Amino acid sequence: MRVLLDTNIFVSYLLGKSQKSSIVSIVEAGVSQAYTILLPEELMEELQKSIRQKDVLRKSIPLSLLDEFLLILTDASEILPTLSESIPSVTRDPKDDYLLAYAVAYQADVLVSGDQDLLRVKRDIEKTSTLQILSPREFLRFL
User: Fold this and answer.
1) Exposed/middle/buried for 37, CB within 10 Å: 0-12, 13-18, 19+?
2) Is CATH 3.40.50.1010 what the domain over 2-142 is classified as, yes or no?
3) Which residue, among 93, 87, 4, 9, has the nearest Cα to 47 in the 3D structure?
4) Pseudo-torsion of CA 10, 12, 13, 14, nearest 10°?
5) Of 108, 140, 132, which is closest to residue 21 (Cα–Cα)?
6) How far apart are CA 23 and CA 29, in angstroms?
7) CA dihedral sign of residues 47, 51, 57, 59
8) Rounded distance between C-alpha atoms, residue 31 and residue 89, angstroms
9) Rounded to an integer, what distance in angstroms lies between the CA atom of residue 110 and that of residue 92?
10) Which candidate, 26, 67, 126, 127, has a CA 20 to 30 Å from the CA of 54?
């Protein structure tokens, strides 16, 4: 199964790594190859930028943990090169559209996100493609 995880999943994982939560279970299952993590280069850049530039995250997530996690994630994932096509507007927040574009272009089976803007377009996307958009809780039950 090919799965694209939203940046918010990785941030939540890094924030709650010491706890056993659904997010931790999801990420650890992907890293241990229970499914294939699709990892756009753009998402890795967004993850690094978010943690390095947001004070709250930078104080809560040591940069050494971020760097170590990115190495593990890179080794365990299928890295997706940057899309050259223009990305259509689908969601209320244009910053989320790239995730849908990567999921469709690279034939993801599932996009996992806690972002309400992505979850709102779930029915429309699922009508026109085989892509499922699931919340972390839904995906964990699916696994």
Assistant:
1) buried
2) yes
3) 9
4) 90
5) 140
6) 10
7) positive
8) 31
9) 20
10) 26
**Token pair 């994982």 is at which residue?**
13
Residue 5 scores a pLDDT above 80: yes
The Cβ of residue 83 has, within 10 Å, a number of other Cβ atoms equal to 15
Q: Could you tell me the two tokens for 58?
A: 């930078």
| CA 9 vs CA 89, 112, 115, 124, 127: distances in Å | 22, 8, 10, 22, 25
Cα 119 to Cα 113: distance, rounded to the nearest angstrom = 7
**pLDDT reading at 119 higher than 80:** no
d(CA 41, CA 73): 12
Residue 17 has which token pair? 């790594």
Tens-digit pLDDT profile for residues 61-113: 999 999 999 999 999 999 999 888 766 566 666 677 888 889 989 999 999 99
Domain boundaries, the chain: 2-142
